[in-house]
Write a structure and sequence with these properties.
With about 550 residues, this protein is an alpha/beta fold. It is built from 13 helices and 27 strands. It folds into two domains: about 325 residues, Purple Acid Phosphatase, chain A, domain 2 (4-Layer Sandwich), CATH 3.60.21.10; about 200 residues, 5'-Nucleotidase, C-terminal domain (5'-nucleotidase,  domain 2, Alpha-Beta Complex), CATH 3.90.780. α5 links the parallel β5 and β6.
C-alpha cells in the first residue's frame, strides 16, 4: 500500500511538472523592413510576371498604409509577431517625409510597433546628435526650420537604435546598444546589429565625427556571450550591409549571393540563426554556410518598403534554439493589401503639410522618365542631367567659374519622375526633391589635371571589391577606362572639350560638399584648393529643369574598354 501511494505521488508530481512546463516550442514571426528611406507612399516596383517569369510587371509597392495592413494580418494569424528595421529608415527621403525632418516616418514606425532598428549609414546623415534626437525626442535639431513641424513636439523613436560596431572615439565605449532582446510570446528573441564598417566612406565627415566603425563580424560575435547569458532562445542578426544575387527576390534558398555580406555571413557565430540585411537595395533570399558549415538564411527586401523580409521560426524555449525556419520576401502590393487606418491619417497629415510645395509642376521633360540605371560604362541618363545642372549653376565667374562637374551615383536617389506612366511628361518639385533629397551644397574647388586623374582612378579603389563608384560627368568632359588594367592605371584619354587635360594645369571643378569632403572614398577631392560654396544641389537641379524642355543626352562621355 505504501509503495502504491509513492507511485501515485510520483505520477502526480510528474503530471504537475508537465503542466507547469507547458509546450516547449513557440512559433515566432519576424517581419523586417530595410532601406525604407522615409517612403510613406508606394512607388513603382517590378515583380516577375507569374505567367512568364522572363518578363516583369510594374506594381505600386510599399507605403506605410499597406505595410500596416500586412502587419495586422500577420499579427492576427500569429500574435507572436515582431516588426524590426534593418537600417536606413530615414535619410535620403522623399519630400513628404524629408521636408519634415523624417519625423512622420519615425511616428509611423512607432505606430506600426517597430521593436528595434539597426542603424544604417543614412541614420548618420545629420550627425550623431541628431540621431540621438531621433531616439530621445525633442525639437533641439540642427535643422530647426524642419524640426517639430509635423507636430508641435517630437516624442522620438519608441524603438531602440542598435549597432555593436559603433564606438565613441573619446571614451572607447559603444555609442549604441549592441542588441535588444524582445519577449515574443514565451520566447526571448535577441536582435544583434551592425552597420557597414565602411560607413565613414559613404557619409559626410560631419555625420560621423567622433565615431569609429569597427568590423561587423568581430563586433557581433563579441556580443554573443552576453546575449546567451541573458537567456535568449534565438538570435537574429540585423546587418546593414548586403550583396546581390542573380536570382529573383522570390527564389527561396538561392546560392548565388555575392558581395560583402557573404564573408560576414560565413564568419558570424553559429548561434545566429538568420541574418537580415540591407544597404544594397536588392531583394534576395539565400543560404550561406556559417563557420560550422551549416547553411543559414541571409535575406534582404529590396528597398523603399517594396518588400518585407519575413522569418517564420519555430523556437524550442527549453533548449534555447531554433528548430525550424522558413524565410520569404513579401511584396507590399498597395492595390491588394488592406490599408491601415491610422497610417492613412498620418500620411494625409504629412501630405497636407507638404503637398503645396510637392505638387508644384516645375518642368516638362522631352521623355516620360529619365532613369538612373547605369550603362556598362557607368553612366546613367539622369546622372548626365544632374552633372550638367551643377555645371550650369557653377559656371558663372561669380559662382566659381567651374568647367567640370562630378556627381556621385549614390546621391541620385530615384528616377525622374519616380512613377510611370507619365504621359504628360511633367515633373513636380516633389519628383525633383526625391531625386536630390540631401540638401547638399555645391562646392567649387581647384584641382590639377594630375589630381583629376587620381580622383578618377579612385573610382576603382573602393572598400567593396567590384563595386566601382563611377562618377557622373558633365557635358564636354570625356575619358576612357580599361577594365582589364590594374588599379591605378585604368583611366586614360582625359579630355575637356576635346583637348587633353594637362596634368600640371589647374581646373575649377564643381561637386557637392559630400564629395568635396572626400566622401565615397574620393580622398583626392578633399585636397582641392580655393574652395567656394554655392547653391543647394536641389536648387541647381530645379533651375536646370525649369530652363527649358530637358531631354537626356545620349552621347557617350565615358568610354569603357574590356
Amino acid at each position: 500500500m505504501k509503495n502504491n501511494l509513492l507511485l501515485i505521488g510520483a505520477a502526480l508530481s510528474l503530471s504537475s511538472c508537465s503542466m507547469i512546463l507547458g509546450p516547449s516550442t513557440v512559433d515566432v514571426t519576424v517581419i523586417g523592413v530595410n532601406d525604407f528611406h522615409g517612403n510613406l507612399l508606394p512607388t513603382s516596383f517590378r515583380v516577375p510576371d507569374p505567367a512568364d517569369r522572363t518578363k516583369t510587371l510594374t506594381v505600386q509597392a510599399g507605403g506605410v498604409e499597406a505595410i500596416g495592413g500586412i502587419l495586422a494580418e500577420a499579427r492576427k494569424a500569429n500574435p507572436n509577431t515582431v516588426f524590426v528595421g534593418v537600417g536606413d529608415m530615414t535619410g535620403a527621403s522623399p519630400l513628404i517625409s524629408g521636408l519634415l525632418r523624417d519625423e512622420p516616418t519615425i511616428g509611423a514606425l512607432n505606430s506600426l510597433g517597430m521593436a528595434v532598428n539597426v542603424v544604417g549609414n543614412h541614420e548618420f546623415d545629420y550627425g550623431f546628435a541628431e540621431l540621438m534626437r531621433y531616439q530621445k525626442g525633442g525639437c533641439n535639431s540642427n535643422d530647426a526650420a524642419k524640426a517639430c513641424k509635423f507636430n508641435n513636439t517630437f516624442e522620438g523613436a519608441k524603438f531602440p537604435y542598435i549597432a555593436a560596431n559603433v564606438i565613441d572615439e573619446k571614451t572607447g565605449q559603444p555609442a549604441l546598444p549592441a542588441y535588444k532582446i524582445v519577449q515574443v510570446g514565451s520566447a526571448k528573441v535577441a536582435f544583434v546589429g551592425a552597420v557597414l564598417k565602411d560607413t565613414p566612406t559613404v557619409v559626410t565627415p560631419a555625420g560621423v565625427a567622433g565615431l569609429k566603425f569597427e568590423d561587423e563580424v568581430k563586433s557581433i560575435n563579441a556580443a554573443i556571450p552576453a546575449i546567451k547569458r541573458m537567456g535568449a532562445d534565438a538570435i537574429v542578426a540585423l546587418v546593414h550591409q548586403g550583396g546581390t544575387s542573380g536570382d529573383a527576390f522570390d527564389i527561396v534558398n538561392c546560392k548565388t549571393l555575392t558581395g560583402p555580406i557573404v564573408d560576414i555571413a560565413k564568419n558570424l557565430d553559429p548561434a545566429v540563426s538568420a541574418i537580415m540585411t540591407g544597404h544594397t537595395h536588392r531583394g534576395y533570399n539565400c543560404l550561406v554556410p556559417g563557420p560550422d558549415g551549416k547553411d543559414r538564411t541571409v535575406i534582404q527586401g529590396d528597398a523603399l518598403g517594396h518588400l518585407l523580409q519575413r522569418l517564420d521560426m519555430t523556437i524550442d524555449t527549453r533548449a534555447n534554439r531554433v528548430t525550424a525556419i522558413r524565410a520569404s520576401n513579401v511584396v507590399v502590393d498597395a492595390a491588394k493589401t488592406p490599408k491601415d487606418a491610422a497610417m492613412t491619417a498620418l500620411v494625409q497629415k504629412a501630405k497636407d503639410l507638404t503637398d503645396p510645395i510637392s505638387r508644384t509642376v516645375i518642368a516638362t521633360l522631352g521623355v516620360e522618365q529619365i532613369t538612373r540605371a547605369a550603362a556598362p560604362n557607368g553612366e546613367s541618363l539622369l546622372g548626365r542631367v544632374i552633372a550638367d545642372s551643377q555645371l550650369a549653376a557653377a559656371a558663372p565667374a561669380t559662382k566659381g567659374g567651374a568647367v567640370i562637374a562630378f556627381m556621385n551615383p549614390g546621391g541620385i536617389r530615384a528616377d525622374l519622375p519616380v512613377n510611370v506612366p507619365n504621359a504628360s511628361k511633367q515633373v513636380t518639385y516633389g519628383d525633383a526633391f526625391t531625386v536630390q533629397p540631401f540638401g547638399n551644397i555645391l562646392t567649387v574647388i581647384t584641382l590639377t589635371g594630375a589630381q583629376i586623374k587620381a580622383a578618377l582612378e579612385q573610382q576603382f579603389d573602393n572598400p567593396s571589391a567590384g563595386s566601382n563608384r563611377l562618377l557622373q560627368v558633365s557635358r564636354g568632359f570625356t575619358y576612357t577606362w580599361d577594365n582589364a588594367k590594374t588599379k591605378g592605371d585604368k583611366v586614360s584619354e582625359i579630355k575637356l572639350n576635346g583637348q587633353a587635360i594637362d596634368p600640371a594645369a589647374s581646373y575649377r571643378v564643381v561637386l557637392n560638399n559630400f564629395l568635396a569632403d572626400g566622401g565615397d572614398g574620393f580622398t583626392t577631392f578633399a585636397q582641392g584648393t580655393n574652395r567656394l560654396g554655392g547653391d543647394l544641389d536641389i536648387d541647381a537641379f530645379r533651375a536646370y529643369l525649369t530652363s527649358g524642355t530637358v531631354t537626356p543626352d545620349t552621347t557617350e562621355r565615358i568610354k569603357r574598354l574590356n
